[in-house]
Amino acid sequence: MSEEKKVVIKRLKSAQTMGQFMVDYYRELDQAAKAGKPKIAWCTSVGPAEILRALGFLIYFPETHSAMLGTSRMATELIPVANAIGYSPDICSYLTADIGAFCKGVSPLQKAFKIDSVPKPDVLVYNTNQCRDVQDWFTWYSEKFNVPVVGIHTYRGVGEVTDAHLDSISKQFENLVAPLEDVADRKLDMDEFKQIVALSRECSDLWDQCLAKAAAMPSPLTFFDGCTLMGPAVVGRGTQKAIDAYKILLGELEERVGSHDGALEDEQFRIYWDGMPVWGRLGVHSKMFAGLNANVIASTYCSSWIFSALDPNDPFTSMARAYTELFIVRSDDYKEEYIRNKLDFFKCDGIIYHNAKTCPNNTNCLYGMPQRLEQDTGIPSLIIDGDLNDLRLLSDEQTKTNVEAFIEQLEERK
Ligand code: SF4
Q: What is the rounded distance in angstroms from the CA atom of residue 305 to the CA atom of residue 285?
């Protein structure tokens, strides 16, 4: 099984549309930063983008920049720069790579889009629903740029989302408005806000439908495609442009499903991925799995930008629900039920957990979950040790050997 074979992965034509979306997104930010308008807010990837957009801010998401530091494989040598100023190598390697890049004055935007640097913020807004690291990360930049930082402090390990959770979080969203209005120099128009929430919901629904197409056998897309196709859902939610992009993608996926055209030539095994991707190995992992006729078809990660609770008629409370119902915010009981449903829906033969060393928040294999789920469902699992950005924390050889052995195990079960 370890013999190399020629691997064919059928690229989606609409990947180009998504790529162009990201080019336009970064260029618009760059122009605004140079012109000094519109104002720019930095926001965490599952932060309150809808409020910011309704106040006229362009939104920059540092995590997407960090993911680019990962895919461009710049991150590993930049992390020590942040370590040298006190940020431990054990904490989020998005944070350390990004702060390291800033200190060195480098960015993957320079090569990718001929953009000199990240856009200067007028305000920074975080939500700790994903982790505490984002608060530290944004506070550091707030001091560097001498601009305000505001945030939402959420519950973690949430089982059932209750009215008490929603009251607290929606109040916090409402309390953000006044300081953000001060920076934006305008008032929040509720009709405009509702319209943005409606656009965000539509984007989320379309992205959800795109990901659900992977339930087809063979699947028209892979997790590795999803990691780049999700760009507009992260940075463009609340805009018509993101909706237009996902309509194109959905159309292509429907065509593929209609003609039984899978992303792989010969899909023999269907795998669920839990945890973050290894950004610097997306291509390598994509080819490795395809070479074993194994399609990693679905993931918790790409589904993180599905906000089905958003409701324009009740924007604050529905935002509170949408951003608290997220997988990463929830208890292990909830997560296990969620993954069980996904394994069933996507008809998966196996599950891979990425043990990302610097992101325990997006790692679910440390407290017995793989064993419990395997006992419950009979579906085998494999844990891959690695990291989202720090390539010193993984062994390519070990990963390859373990994945090959895992696929052999799945083969024997067939
Ligand atoms: S969730 Fe993980 S990767 Fe994302 S910002 Fe937090 S620690 Fe970093």
A: 23
